[in-house]
Amino acid sequence: MGEQEKHKVVGLREDGWVTLREGEGWQRAEVGDDMVINAIGRRSEEKTEVDRRDSLPLILGDSSVPASWNEALESMAKGEIAKVFAAEKELEATGFDRRAAWYELELVSWIPRRDLMHDGTAIEHLLKDGEGWERPGRISEVHLRMELLSTDPNPREILPSIEKTLATESPNVPEMLRRSIDSLKIGSVVRIHCMAMRTKELVKLFDAPLEGEVQLKMELLQFSKMEDIFGDESSVRKVLREGLGFEKPGVGSEATCQISYRKQGDATVLWSGSLTFVTGDGVTSEGIDAAVRRMKRGEKCTLYLRKDRAFSDRYSRFAPQGVYAEEDLVAEIELLDFNRPPAEWTLPFDEAISAMLARKDRGNELFNEGWYNEALGHYDRAEKRMTSCRTDLDVQQRTVVDSIRATCLVNMAACYEKLGNLKEMLAHADRAVFLEPQNAKALFRRGTAHMKLGNLQQALNDVRFAADNGAGNYPEVRSRMKEIIVKLSKEEREEREKYPLKFRNMFKKKEG
C-alpha cells in the first residue's frame, strides 16, 4: 500500500507521522492504557536500521514515551504501522536512539487501563470486552466469576475461581468493584491490580484472610437491573417476572397482592399472605405502596426495604404479625390484580367534580395525619385529571374546575413546604395564583416560599396582597408580614453597614 500522508503538528515542532499500513477496526487506545508496540529506528536518507525494540511495553501518555509517539499512537488502530518523526533531544530524553531520524511503529495490541479510585491503589485492565451494549449500572444484582492471583510476572493462583451473586449496593461490595462492575458488559473480563489497602476490602467478599498486593480477575456472567424507587437506596426493586400489558395501578387503585417478608440476610419467611389496599391511601408501608404502583398485572418482584421505608415509626401499625418494625426487610411481591377508578374526564360533569373533591378530601385527611407524600398523590391526581382532557365545559363549569385545581395546588405547596422542597412549593403556589390571581391562600403560600428562598421584597408584596384580599385578619398572615418586614429591615441595615455613606455618595452626580 502506498504511503498516505497524515502529517500532524505536535506542539510547535514539525514532528508528525505518516501512515504506512492501516489498522483494523475503529477502536482507539486512551491515555493510561497499556500498549505493546514494535519500534524500528532508521536514518533519514539511508533508511539504515539503528534501533529495534520488539514487543516493547509502554503506557500511552507516559512521560517516558516521546510526545510525538504518544500523539501518533493515540490515533492508531490495532495493527497499524506509522512512520513517526521526533526531535533528537526528545528521543535522547526518553532513552531512544537520537541517531534515528524517524521510527517505524507498529501497534501490536493494547489493554485498556483505568485507575478506579484515582489514587493508584486499584488499577483495572480490560482483558476481554463483553457483548451488546447494556451495562449493570450502579444498582443491580450481578453474577460474577472471580479469581485471586499473585502479582508475579507469571501469576500464581492465590484462591481458586468462585462464582458469586452480589447486590452491588451491598456493604460487602467494595467501592472499587462497584466502579468496575458499573462499566462492564456480559462476558467482559477484567483484571484489577489491588494494592494492600484495597486487598483488605476483599476479605469479606472471599471470606478468607488476605494481605499484600493481589490481582483480582473478574468476569461478568449475568446481571439484573434494579430500580432505586426513591433515589436514596431505601427501596430497591428487582423484577423477577414481567407482567402483562402496559397498564399500572398508579394512585387510587384497589390492588390485590401476594406478599411475603423476610429479614435481609435471612431466608426465614416472617409472614406470607394476601394484601388488598388502595394505592396512595397511606394504608401500608411507603415502600410497598410505591413498588406496587409501578408494577403491571401479574408482575413479580423482590423489594429490598430499609426500615424507614418498611414498618418503622409511623408505619409500624401496618406491620403484619411476626414482622418487626425496626428491621430492614426483603419483600417478595406478586401483583395479582388491580381495579383503577374511572378517569374523571370520562364521567358526567357532576360525577367528575364529586370524584375530584373526594380525592382532595382524602388528601386533606392524609395531610392532617402527617402523610405528606401520600397527600401529594391525591392532590396531584385531582388537579391533573380535568386540566386538558375536558373540552366540553362551559365558562361556569371551567370556573368551578379551576377553583378546585387552585385549592389542590395550594395544598400541594403546603405538602412541599412540610417536605422541605421550597422550589416545588413556589412553583405550585405560582400555578395556583395564575388560576386565581386573588386567591389569598395561594398568595400567602407563594409569599412564604419567597421568604424562605430569600426573595424578601417579592414575599412582602404577596403577603400584603393576600391581606388585602381578605386574609388580613388571620394571625398567621399578620405574623408572617411582620416577620418579613423585620428581615427586610435587617437586610437593609446590613447593606448600609457594608457600603458606608461616603461610598454610596461617591458616584452621585455633582450639582451645579
Protein architecture, described:
This protein is of the alpha+beta class and 512 residues long. 32% of the residues lie in helices and 27% in strands. The chain contains 14 helices and 17 strands. The strands form 2 sheets. Strands 7, 8, 9, 10, 11, 12, 13, 14, 15, 16 and 17 form an 11-stranded antiparallel beta sheet that branches. Strand 7 and strand 8 form a beta hairpin. Helix 7 packs parallel to helix 9 (395-419), helix 8 (372-384) packs antiparallel against helix 9 and helix 10 (422-435) runs antiparallel to helix 11. The chain starts with a strand and ends in an 8-residue tail after the last helix.
Q: Give the proportion of residues in helices.
A: 25-40%
Q: What's the total number of strands?
A: 17
Report the principal-axis shape. Answer: extended
Radius of gyration using CA atoms only: 34 Å
Structural class, from secondary structure content? Answer: alpha+beta
Q: What does the average pLDDT come to?
A: 87
The CA-CA distance between the termini, in Å, is 87 Å
Outline the biggest β-sheet: 11 strands, antiparallel
Give the DSSP E fraction (strand runs of 2 or more residues): 25-35%
Low-confidence stretches: 1-15
Q: What count of helical segments does DSSP give?
A: 14
Topology summary:
Layout: E1 4-5, E2 17-21, E3 34-42, E4 49-59, H1 67-73, E5 81-85, H2 88-93, E6 102-111, E7 113-115, E8 122-128, E9 140-149, E10 157-167, H3 175-181, E11 189-194, H4 196-199, H5 203-206, E12 214-228, E13 235-241, E14 254-263, E15 269-278, H6 286-293, E16 300-305, E17 329-339, H7 349-368, H8 372-384, H9 395-419, H10 422-435, H11 440-453, H12 456-471, H13 475-498, H14 501-504
Antiparallel strand pairs: 1-2, 2-5, 3-4, 3-6, 5-6, 7-8, 8-11, 9-10, 9-12, 11-12, 12-13, 13-16, 14-15, 14-17, 16-17
